Amino acid sequence: MSQHQPSEFSLTVTTEPTTLTVYVAGELDYDTGDDLVTAFAGHLGRHPAPREVRLDFRHLTWIDSSGLAALLMIHRHAGAVGAELRLDNRPGFLDDRLRLTNVFEHLVGPGRFSDPGASRADGDATRLGVT
Prior knowledge:
Elements: E1 10-15, E2 19-28, H1 33-46, E3 52-63, H2 65-80, E4 84-88, H3 92-100, H4 104-107
């Protein structure tokens, strides 16, 4: 029986005058979800409130229910400062989890789909998904 080796988790944060972008790599789960929320909240506290918050998941390898809870918390924090949350470059398994837990439209918005391989001009990945 082989043991699962978790992918190393990392966050990279960039700020622009009106945008805060967090690049998430590895597994977003019970062990790392709080790290994402803490890093995000810390940046909100140190910088003027952004109008847009972007989470880039191009290097996400896994997400569990604790990771989903972290996304919901970030959505709440972003909304509290009047920022729009964007989930960019979502892998298919992330969209599947968001739909399975009925939070896809809450976090992504109606009519926005994901495709790991194709990006729209606004930076979102697009794919026709199963609803």
